[in-house]
Amino acid sequence: MKVLILSINYWPEVTGIGAFTTYRAEYLAAAGHEVEVCTTFPYYPEWEVPAAYSGKLAMSEERNGVRVVRSYTYIPKTATSLKRVLHEASFIISSFVRAVARRRPDLLLVVSPPLGLAVSAVLLSRMWRVPFVFDVEDLQPDSAAELNMLPSWALRFLYKVEKAAYHYAALVTTLTSGMRQRIIDKGISPDKVELLEARADDSLFDIHPSEGSLFRKHFGLENKFLVTHSGNMGVKQGLDVIVDAAVLNKAEESIQFLFVGDGAVRGRIQRRVAELGLQNMTFLPVLEAEEFRGLLAASDVCILAQQKSVSEIAFPSKVVTYLAAGRPVIASVNPESEIAQTVRDSGAGKIVTPEDGGALLEAILELRGEDRQKYHENAKEYASWRWSSARILGHLERSLLSVAASASPSLTQEGSIR
After folding, report:
1. Which is nearest to 336 in space by CA: 170, 141, 178?
2. Average pLDDT score over residue span 186-215
3. For residue 312, what pLDDT band results from cuts at 50, 70 and 90?
4. Rounded CA gap, 132 and 126, in Å?
5. Of 60, 5, 69, 74, which is closest to residue 35 (Cα–Cα)?
6. Where are the beta strands (DSSP E) in 100-160?
7. Residues pairing with 343 in the sheet
């Protein structure tokens, strides 16, 4: 089976959609399929293209059996709503031009956001007469509406694009049961919408405490109770709640809060911390794999934060990462969200009222006084059961083969062999 993937994010990005798309593509390639990815140059979450890729309009490279075809995209230094629209539009256009020049695939896998890639998907699908799978990582119109990020006319347009994407796709996949239900509630047949969850990095199940000790020593964090937030630092996360908790606990020197990663609001959060003179907060950049393992091993508690207006429309990859590494978690999120339900089901930590620094600090102090081993064991057991690579990626391959075979019966034999 030849698969062409359209995704704005890809390796060497290590968080969010980039990580998801990379391990999915590389799994399919390792399973013997021919995989190409049309993407842009890496920029997320720093919103900055690294020197090795800077200044280029297009390039191609190969990694782990996957052909990666990159095209220019406008990357704003400050990601305002308008600049995000220009950013996404530039990728939709440039990636379409690159995709048209590729050899006809058996199947298109199109990753949203950006939602506008649905236009490319429909055009390419009709031109080549092949099906496309629309993979929804974020319900972009719903997110924009709940966060009041766009005017009403723009939202109406996005909802029309979304409706067309679901209608023309051979299959719609999404991350969580809550997101799946929202899509179904928009009038899409349940048979057309599949759950395709994130997979756990199986190597995280074997993290050793000694890795945490090395991390603490390297960053001068010995004898600290470490409370960590890692990954994207965006509007949706509502990260001021962590700063609020740190303010309330600034006299307690034994607890240190870590912000690890980058994103649209990191600069503002850093300025606020500096203005408050907080010594109990440390900022670290996106870490390489070995240091990130050390961070997880060293963290006593990991924070999952979202604005209270965000419900089931988002499920950040850090949920899977924290639980696979056996970290006790505190979820400062909407109690009806998928994150909250996962924390309840797993028994991996506590849920507190979102945007309430006092409630967050109270939960941190409670966890510090408890035996956290039970949370550690619950988290790893749940992650192993729900998000193992074999289960998640095997399902991905079977679903794609089924869609491709429905359009090209000659692929049915390949599907039966695998």
Report:
1. 178
2. 93
3. low
4. 10
5. 5
6. 107-112, 132-136
7. none
Neighbours of 286 (CB within 10 A): 19
Residues of the chain with CATH 3.40.50.2000: 2-199+388-417, 202-385
Q: Exposure of 62 by Cβ count < 10 A (0-12 exposed, 13-18 middle, 19+ buried)?
A: exposed
What architecture is domain 2-199+388-417?
A: 3-Layer(aba) Sandwich (3.40)
Task: Calculate mean pLDDT across residues 109-116.
Answer: 94
The first and second tokens of residue 205, run together, are 């199940």
The backbone region for 139, taken as left when phi is positive above 0, alpha when psi lies in -120 to 50, beta otherwise, is beta
Structure tokens at 35: 């995989």
Query: What is the pLDDT, as a whole number, of residue 176?
Result: 85
> What CATH number does the domain located at 202-385 have?
3.40.50.2000
Q: Residue-wise over 190-228: b if at least 16 C-beta within 10 A, else e?
A: eebbbebbbbbbeebeebeeebbebbbeebebeebbbbb
Higher pLDDT, residue 412 or 298 = 298
pLDDT tens-digit series, residues 330-387: 999 989 888 999 999 999 999 999 999 999 999 999 999 999 999 999 999 999 999 9
Q: What does DSSP assign to residue 14?
A: -
